[in-house]
Amino acid sequence: MALLSRHPWCAASLLLVPVLTLAAPGWPRLAGVGPCWAILWLLPWALAEGRLSAILAGATLGLLLDSLHHGGVSEIPALMLLGWWWGRIGRLGAPVERSFSLGLLALLGTLGLDLSLMLQWALRSSLGAGSGLSGGGIDPATLAKPGWHLDDLAGAGLHVLLARTLLTALLAPVLCSLQLLLWRQQGGGVGRR
Q1: Span 147-153, mean pLDDT?
Q2: Which conformational region is residue 83 in: left (phi greater than 0), alpha (psi within -120 to 50 degrees), or beta?
Q3: Of 21-30, 98-107, 130-139, 161-170, which gets the smallest average pLDDT?
Q4: Residue 192 lies in a domain
Q5: Angle (CA) 73 112 162, round 5°
Q6: Residue 15: CB partners within 8 Å, gap ≥ 6?
Q7: What is the rounded distance in angstroms from the CA atom of residue 163 to the CA atom of residue 50?
Q8: pLDDT tier at 154 (50, 70, 90 boundaries)?
Q9: Does some domain include residue 161?
Q10: I want to staple 44 with a disulfide (CB 3.0 to 4.6 A). Which of 11, 15, 110, 180 is the partner?
Q11: Separation CA 110–CA 165 (nearest Å)
């Protein structure tokens, strides 16, 4: 956590993720879907700072992003797991510097995060539908309306998953490389755990 203790503004950059998520800038969009800003911030942080700092950053980032939406699903577990994995790669492996590697790690991370959210939604829907809980499950009256068919909903989820994953992977080599370079120069990689 050398970077965090010496340069608190680096940790304060974490606040840009919810701001960019809320602002949803129009220029980095693919088929109407924006990138996963959490992955684009957490990946270089974890590679520069190590496991412990990345797990804490993933939990904090997850809390911030979960506070932006209501829905009963959480990004915290996936972001903490990704922080641990990337922090381990940054500490134990050779330094990740190639653009292809950063893009591939961002692609896998976005895919893992989105699949985690989809799995949570599926579990919540299946548990809520069978137990009679309010707000759980899919209301058949909603699906009977024109334009709302299960195939359409599944196609929209796949569309968002693929577009967000691809866009994040395409932006990662540029954005993550710049952050990684800056944070490695500022922190020197000392004290990573």
Answers
A1: 50
A2: alpha
A3: 130-139
A4: no
A5: 100
A6: 64
A7: 29
A8: low
A9: yes
A10: 180
A11: 5
Q: Which position has the token pair 């510097």?
A: 97
Residue 193 forms part of a structural domain: no
Residue 141 pairs in a beta bridge with none
- Residues 141 and 60: their CA atoms lie apart, in Å, by 38
- The DSSP line for the chain is -HHHHH-HHHHHGGGHHHHHHHH--SSS-BTTB---HHHHHHHHHHHHH-HHHHHHHHHHHHHHHHTT--SS--SHHHHHHHHHHHHHHHHHSS----HHHHHHHHHHHHHHHHHHHHHHHHHHHHHHHHHT-TT-S--HHHHHSTT--HHHHHHHHHHHHHHHHHHHHHHHHHHHHHHHHHHHHHHTTTT--
Number of domains in the chain: 1
> Taking residues 87-101, what's their average pLDDT?
79
- Provide the CATH number for the domain around residue 48: 1.10.1760
Mean pLDDT of 101-111: 93
pTM for the model:
0.79
**Main-chain dihedrals φ then ψ at residue 148, nearest 5 degrees:** -110, 85
User: In the numeric block, which tokens belong to residue 141?
Assistant: 């009256």
Q: Give the domain extent around 165.
A: 2-187
